Structures are given as C-alpha cells and as structure tokens.
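Progress narrative, work stream C.
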Amino acid sequence: MNHKISLKLAKSLYQVALKNKQTEEVFEQLNGLLELFNDQSFINNWSSQSALSNDQLDKLTEDTFGKSLNNILKNLWVMLVASNCLNELPVISKYYQYIYFKEENIANFEIITANKLDEKLIKEITSKIESNKKQKIYIKFNTDNSLIGGMQIFENDILTDHSLSAKLNKLRKEIISYQ
C-alpha cells in the first residue's frame, strides 16, 4: 500500500466518522490503536492472521477489542489485517489526525521535554496555551531525554525549540565559526 492509498483511506475514514458523528471518538481510538504498535509481539501476531476468513477476523477482532473499538475502526482493522497492510495504520492515523484537526479547527500541540512533567506544570502549560488561542486545542506531552533540559513545542508541526541541547548546538556552531 502506498501513501496515496493511505491518504484516501484516511479521508474516507473521516467522512464515515463525520456522517456518524464520531470524528472525535475515531481520533481517540486511533491513538489507542497506535499505542499497540509499541508491542511488537501483538502486531506480529495480528500480521500473521491475514489467511483467516473475514468472519474469523471479525470474531477475533471482536474478541480482542470488544467495545473499546467502534465499528468503523473494527472494519478498518479487519480490512488492514486481511490485506496484510496493518503496518499502514500509523500512516492512515497521521493523515486522519491532520484532516481531523484541520476540519474541526483544532490547534495541535506536541510538547516534548527531557523529563516527564508533573500534573501541576502540565495544567499551567495547558492553561497558558488555552488563554492564547481562540480555538479548541489538543496537546500531547512526550519526553525525550536527549533534550537535556527545556522543551520543544510543535504547533501544527512547526517547531519552536527551547531545549538545552539546541542551545548547546547553537553555541558549538558559533564557537566553530570563530575558529
């Protein structure tokens, strides 16, 4: 499967979710499915199920996910497994997220810090961003210990880098340019 097909699937997924008034639910459940991609044995097990009939895949999907997945995503899951394209789910999800944020006028933030932030600081950051935006926001907090300190802020995929590692790299380049 190529990325053009993944984009078409994401657009179709959004249209079906919109028709069923489930765009937010699909967005949240897709994020949950993506977390499963961290468990390689889970993905390998599912990737080897493409030889099953659709009825068998439906039953296995229902037994595995139950009510934690809506029917739209269960059908997508079965289709991807049956066509041996489960590895495309992260790409489809990324496209869906882009479409969802654009169509719903949601500002998308990802904040990356060297260490996990405590709840009080997360609330302060969230409150500050909310007070500066005239639209709904979505904030995802992640950690990356290579940042050393500070943070990186992605707003709709545009980076503002306030990390210590970025400042050290800038200083290193300035020192090298003087030599």
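Work stream C, second folded protein:
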Amino acid sequence: MTFPETRLRLRLNGSLVAGASLRILVLAVGLVACACSSSDLPAATTATPSATSQASPSPSPTPTGAEVPVDKQVLPPATDPPVAQLCRTAITTTADQNATPLFCHNGAVNVLAWSFYGAVSDSILSLGLNPNNGQPQSAMCDDIAHNGAKRSQEVSAYRLAAAYYGWTFTFDPTKVTCS
C-alpha cells in the first residue's frame, strides 16, 4: 500500500523536467496558433490597398506589425552570444515546415524563428562564432541526417546562424550536398 504523500513526492520529482517541457510545448503551440490565426486577418485587409503592400517590403504576421526588440542574450542551442541584434515578431509556418519571417524589418534575428528551428537544426545553430571552412556544410548535413531537418529548413537555419554569429562564408546553402 502506498501513501498519497509518497506518490505525490515521486510524481513531482519525476515530472519537473516533463512539466517544464510541457509548458514550453504549450507556449510554442500557442504562439504558432496565434501566428496562424492572426496572419489570416492582415492578408484580407492588406490585399485591398496596394499602397500598404508597397510600403512594407514583407508581409507583417500581426495586424499591428509589432516587432519588439530583444536584449542580446545567448539563444539555445547556441553557446555564444549573438553578434546580431535580436527581435521578436510572430512567425507563421509554411507548407514545407519552415517559419517566416526569419528577420525583423531592421535585419535583427527573430528569436521566435530561432526557437522554431532549434529542434531540427541543433548542429548548425550551435556551431559557434568561428567555425572553419566546411564546418557549416557538415553541420547542415548532420542536421538533415540525424536531427530530422528537411533541406529547406536547414537553409533557413543556416541563414539565421550566419546572421546571429556574423559569418561571412561565400557558399550557397541551397547547393550543399550531403553524402
């Protein structure tokens, strides 16, 4: 026979990490749901006036186009602080399982897009400030082979990492071949 106090203590000890993961998952799902539902409204309102679509170079995922600056901080899975500025704006997911926008209008890295790619693009996003030639390509192939990233997702993750770390590699991420 077990006492309720014992079961409660075991459940709490075993579920702290799961509880935190669940809260993060619920938050992420909520953000995606909000982004998906709010993106339908601006599309209907901005499709009519052509002056509005010309004034904004990329469609805004929220009715107000809210982009919030974020203090510089290390974004997991990175272990180095960013070279780039950070911002937060709602993302939408595309049919090919990508997120948009990757960057805010001022060029800052969108922390919500970074978080979106963190699960499947761990290798490229954690590569660091000073990788050698060839390391980004190897990291991209590792993510595709072992982390479940699709090629199109990995191209977007590379672009985020290049901006975050300030990389100046000259290769085309869409032409990376993995053996």
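Strands lie at 68-70, 86-88, 92-93, 99-100, 109-110. No further action is required on this item.
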